[in-house]
Amino acid sequence: MHATAVLLRLLKNSTARYLDAEAAKASFFFGLDMARKMSVHPFDVADKVYRIMSLLWTSEKVYRDQNGAPVITLRVRWRSAGSHVMDTFAYWKEEFKDFEDKGTNQQQTQEGED
Fold this sequence. Notes:
The protein is an all-alpha fold. The protein is built from 4 helices and no strands. It has helices at residues 2-11, 21-38, 45-58, 83-113. Helix 1 (2-11) runs antiparallel to helix 2, helix 2 packs antiparallel against helix 3 (45-58) and helix 3 packs across helix 4.
């Protein structure tokens, strides 16, 4: 998860031109595939990581300020080593939280009908 969040940040910013972009993308999608395969139940942690990272990959707003300029610095700064992961989830929450809430509510409704 940590490596996938770092790769997402690097690939979505101007730093991508300094990377072997194809190898970085392959590594990113390998990380997504690992999260998907680790999932044992819908909406467990691995499934949520897979969904969040997939949505952020398609986003044009992630790691950008209101004017569209790239943002390199962390917005969420904690003492823990996972602050870049929490920062990634903060971008997701800002842009996609309504989308995820609808999916979660729909899943809970379907489970209640069974």
